[in-house]
Structures are given as C-alpha cells and as structure tokens.
Amino acid sequence: MSSGIAAGELVEASGVQVTTGAFGAAAASVLGWALDLFDLFIILYVAPTIGPLFFKAHNPLVSLAAVYAAFGVTLVMRPVGSVLFGPFADRRGRRPALLVAFIGVGVVTALLGTLPTLQEVGLLAPILFLVLRLVQGVFVGGVVAATHTIGLETVPSRWRAVVSGLTSGGGGSGTGALLASIAFAITAHAFPGPAYAVWGWRWMFFSGLLSALVGLVIYATTVETPAWRRAAAAKATRARPLHVLFGSAYRRVFVTNALVVGGGATLYYLTSGYIPTFLTTVVGVPKPVAGSILIVSSIATIAAAFVAGLVTRALGVRRTMLLGGVLGLVCVPLLYHVLGTLQPTQVGALRTWSLLLTMVSPLATAPIVLFLNRRFPTAIRASGTALSWNIGYAIGGFMPTLVTLATHRTSEIATWLGVFVGAAMIVFLVLNWLVPEGGDERLDAVTA
C-alpha cells in the first residue's frame, strides 16, 4: 500500500505524470473490462458447438438455450462477486481487488477447456461445467468493482465521458469481442469441420490464460486512484460499505441504477451478444465467415464507443442515453428482420447489416459507467457501481436464453429479438426520463 501511495504522490507532482497516470488508469479500465468480457464471450462464440457436448436434448434449440442458461448463471453470480470484491475495493483500494479478480477469471476460463464431455462422463459433465461457470461469475463481478472505478476516479473530468464510453459503451466490450472473434477465427481455421467439436472449443477456453497474464501487467503499471487515496487519508472509508449502500439514503438510487443498467445490458446482449449465434444458427453462415464478419463488427463497435463518449461529453449523460434508447427501440427490430432474410452466400450484405446492428448499443450504454460513478460517494463507489452493474447485466444476460426458449423455430428468432429489445428500451427510456442529470461533484470531492 505504501508504494502505491508514493507512486500516486509522484503522479500528482507534475502535469506530465498526471497525464501518464490518467492514461494508465483509463487503459486499465478499458483493457481490464475487455479481457473480462473476452473470457465471457468465448462461450457465446462456441455455444452451438458445446451445446450437444454438455447438454443432451432432441431439439438443438434446447441445447443452445441450455448453454445460454449457463452463461446467464455466471451473470447471476456476478453480484456475489460484487458483494465480496466491492467492499474489498472500497476498504483496501481498487488496485489489489483488480489483481485477484483478474487472475481468478483467467484461470477458471482455462479450466473450462479441460472438462470431459457428456459422452465421456455423463451427467457429471454439465455439473462441472456449471460449477466452473459459477466460480467464474464471482471473479467477473470482482473485476467490475475495480475496472469501473479506477479510470473515472483518476482521469480529468473532461475525459470521463470518453473513458465511460470506451468502458461501458462498447470500447471494452468491443475489444473483448474482437479478441474473442480473432480467437474464434483462428481456432475455426486450425480445427475445421468436426475437429472443432473435439479440440477447437477447448483452445478457445485455454486462451483465457492470456487475461491473467495481462492482469499482472496492468497491476504492475498502475497506481491507486487519487479519489480513494484522499478518502483513505481523511479516514473516510467505510468499514461496512454494503450497510450504507442498502440503507435508506442510497437504496432507491441503487435499485434505479440496476434497472437502468439492465435496459442497456439487454440491448447489448441481444445485439452484439446474440449476433454470433444468429449468423451461424439462423442464417447458416460457416464459422470462418462468421468469424471474419464479427471481427469487422467488433472494430466498428470500438469506434462507435469512442464517438458515443464524445457525444456524451457534448450532450450530457441523460440526453445521450435517451437518444440511444430511441435508436435501439426503432433500429434493432428492423435490422434483425433484414438479416433474417439474407442468404449465407450474401457475405457483403451480412457484414454490412451485422456491423450496423452491433453499432446500435454504444450510444445507450456509453454513459452508464459515468452515470453510476456520479451516483455514489468514494467510500461506497466500488460496491455500489459493481452491484448496480452486475445485477443489471444479470437481467440482460438472461435475455438470450428467454428469446431462445420463446422461439419454436429458428425463423422466429428475429421477431422475438425485436420484441424483447423493444420492451427493454421502453423501460430504459422511462427510467432515464425520470432521473435528473448528475454532476462530477462526488468524483471530485476532497473526501468520501
């Protein structure tokens, strides 16, 4: 702890070092969240392959829904990770919480690649798969507690909207999806056809070890946030941050935050999160072609997230989220309808419409991290932000499962995707209309 404070004091000593420290913190937020989502996205990319390997069913859609349920179960455990790591980050600092959570996520992801299949060990296979997904969810929840605060508590106020956009608006998720798309494309080429069901999906999970290694690098090159150090120096940190968060002063704020995040998460998971399955299962695009489409879409999402951050800085958090909600409500059903009419051979059209679909969500989700950080004081910010985010994303993460279960034929998936997104965006718009625009007073406070 003392070395982190000494480094932080040096960061504040000169303008050049402030810029360097702010850049490192911003990179830790974006790259940290990207690698976290890379580990989570792997299952979305291999879902059609591993469904029959771990969840036996006569209908392929039921196996696919089971894999998505395993994804959703991980999201349910993320709030548990917030309960464990959020108070740890509030009491001990953002940096140590980041290290432990990062290594945990990477190791558990790699272990998923070692599991025996249903054919090899019977019912033990899905049980082991679900257990590891539960543990992974705990560590992912811990990563959020650090990544979603370390950047915004460090960078100057004029750059917070951009960092928020690059973290929650699609920069982090787009980078994570890009890395997963690259891994998917490489493994699809290395293990073509039936070989992918033997070794390809395993190497996708083994690549999770990269995030653990990068986590060590991030820890070694960042310092503790000025906001947390000010609170610690003033003895303004809380022994029981969750007690404060669930108390009368912040209970309503917390519930509203979680529902706002849930709307944004639904939009995200039913666009960028669902498009890999939509291309391979509904349209019938070969895996290598789908991988190339997803790589282009991920790059476009990263660019859209940066632009969405600039829009947030210009228009403010509330108006940007309202604009993004309207865009999601109107555009997503239309884009899925068009995609559902295309043939696997229409690669150019599939790439264009997929790119447009994945660029819808950043405008709605870009301001969310800044929105959350503004709503809590430093003493409970990691706990409040992490729990709000993870509960909201647990809600959104179950939407692919519900869409798949509501569908009796693959031809109906596009329609149900539009219905679920439309309902979520209505809730999202109403909540954002009711919540007033906030400011950076708490982020800039001298104490908690």
Give structural attributes.
single chain, 448 residues, mainly alpha, Growth Hormone, Chain: A, disordered N terminus
Mind explaining what this structure looks like?
The chain is globular. The N terminus is likely disordered. It has one domain: MFS general substrate transporter like domains (Growth Hormone, Chain: A, Up-down Bundle), CATH 1.20.1250.20. Helix 2 packs parallel to helix 14. With 448 residues, the chain is mainly alpha-helical. It is built from 22 helices and no strands.
What is the CATH domain class? Mainly Alpha
Query: Taking all residues together, what is the mean pLDDT?
Result: 84
CATH topology: Growth Hormone, Chain: A
Helix content: over 70%
Number of domains: 1
Which secondary-structure class do the elements indicate?
mainly alpha
**Which word captures the global form?**
globular
Number of strands: 0
CATH superfamily: MFS general substrate transporter like domains
Please render the helix and strand layout as text.
Layout (H helix, E strand, L loop, with lengths): L1 H10 L3 H40 L5 H33 L1 H19 L5 H4 L2 H27 L9 H9 L2 H20 L9 H7 L2 H13 L4 H8 L7 H5 L5 H19 L5 H9 L3 H29 L1 H24 L6 H12 L3 H4 L2 H7 L3 H20 L1 H8 L6 H22 L14
